Amino acid sequence: MPSSRPPAPDIFAAISTWLSDSLLDQLEGVTRFECRVAIRLLQTLERELTLGPEIDGAEQSRLSALLGTDGTTEDLTAQLADGIRRGEIDATAPGLLDHLRRSSRDALRINNPKWLG
Amino acid sequence: MQDPDSLTAELATVLAEKTGGTVEIGELRRLTAGATKGTWAFDAMTGGKTEPLILQISRPRILTESHDGTTDPQADLPLLSGSEDAAIQQAADQAGIAVPHVRFILALDRGRSLGVITDFVPGESLGRAIVTTPALSAARQVFARQCGQNLAKLHAIDPATLPFLKALGPADQVQIYRRIYESFDHPQPALELGLCWSEDHLPERSVTCVVHGDFRNGNMIVNDAGIGAILDWEIAHLGDPMEDLGWLCVNTWRFGGSAPVGGVGRREELFGAYEQAGGRLVDPDHVRFWEGFGCIKWAIICMMKGQAYRRGGGLARGLDLEAAAIGRRTEEPLHDFLNLAYPGD
């Protein structure tokens, strides 16, 4: 990807600030509600671009350790899901619950940090 | 059909036929909350009297096929037609449950859709507002008990009087939601674990009752006196009565409140009022199954909403913002499920 400036997270932040400060108050009813949703989604994307690489790296290392094999985060996640479905890996497997907790917490850091209190 | 002016004119005509007098329609406006059905508020004026009413418009259901040509597993979920929805509301009304009283059932748009007109019930329906609005503090005190009382009455309705309801017990539901999840081909280890947990914790015994299916904060109108009306009956079915008690306690429906029952009440109040009002004896572990599976079910519903636009192997329609936002809520209930099923680990 070209390293153009300003970087994408900053542009997302600028758009969501513009929507909240300049547009939101001019809207009412359904479009006002939708504008709030759009702002939340832009903020989510901003966090995803900023936090994503670190979160993905940590997830991949945990998965590799858990499954004892290498691969992309996507492939390892599919393998883990498959192992759980087949009953080969259950809640007592060392590291499993810790991994799942961290993964859902990391996803919430992007999608809805307020959920974590 | 969605155009307010033509709908106003059509309502005036249809209501005049129904009542045999002149009816003027004023202030027709689309209500924002509740996105699955068309809900409108309006004033009906007859002989100098103005009455606020609610109109719900429903369209026939469209089933889709999944990419491998088999029937979409979502078709196995219960979904009442507009007239069945009105019928169960009327049965609930007769059983003394807080529901909007049905006034008229109308064919609209040359018979292509059905309109159900009910009384307007004043109050708040947004879950977050019910948990936080200072003016509703007295209502919050009685909320859990009133939930128990209304559910006891609902679960006492003779299922034979509502023969159109689909039977959907705990094992059926876990299986249907598993198939829906698998149809997305988007592996989620926490969700797999939740489905396995649900299969391992299925209630050993359950009776079959009329179940609301989406009984929770956010689907009720609450005013000073407490629960004014229970809404959103379209996924009612025959099933385990404890489903309604467990779903009500799912963390998502607490809207940030700390108390388990809709964010505002205690489980003991709910269970006690339910038993006192004639409901069956409540086993908290049995309810906990429905709360845990409820998290998993909500996670799958979030996936359903977020992926609806890409069903059938291509882009079925545009992705709307609210659906995108709900899709991004999938991990909230997964996080809650892990806390519920494996506390202290």
Task: Describe, in plain words, how this protein is organized in 3D.
The complex is a heterodimer of chains A (about 120) and B (about 350). Chain A is mainly alpha-helical. Chain A has helices spanning about 10-25, 30-65, 75-85, 95-110. Chain A has one domain (about 10-115). The model of chain A has no long low-confidence stretch (mean pLDDT about 95). In chain B, β1 (about 25-30) and β2 (about 40-45) form a beta hairpin. By secondary structure, chain B is of the alpha+beta class. Chain B contains eleven helices and nine strands. The interface between A and B is medium-sized, with 33 and 27 residues.
The major pleated sheet of chain B works out as: 5 strands, antiparallel
The ordered H/E elements of chain A are HHHH
**Which structural class do the helices and strands of chain B define?**
alpha+beta
| Oligomeric state of the chains present here | heterodimer
Say how many strands of chain A there are. Answer: 0
Greatest interface and its participating residue counts = A-B, 33 and 27 residues
Radius of gyration of chain A, taken over Cα atoms and rounded to an integer in Å: 19 Å
Number of strands of chain B: 9
Short structural summary:
Chain A has helices at 8-23, 29-67, 73-85, 96-111.
Write the layout of secondary structure elements.
The complex is a heterodimer of chains A (117) and B (345).
Chain A: H1 8-23, H2 29-67, H3 73-85, H4 96-111
Chain B: H1 4-19, E1 24-30, E2 38-46, E3 49-58, H2 82-94, E4 102-108, E5 113-119, H3 127-132, H4 137-155, H5 170-183, H6 189-200, E6 209-211, E7 220-223, E8 226-230, E9 237-239, H7 242-249, H8 267-276, H9 284-307, H10 321-327, H11 331-341
Antiparallel strand pairs in B: 1-2, 2-3, 3-5, 4-5, 6-9, 7-8
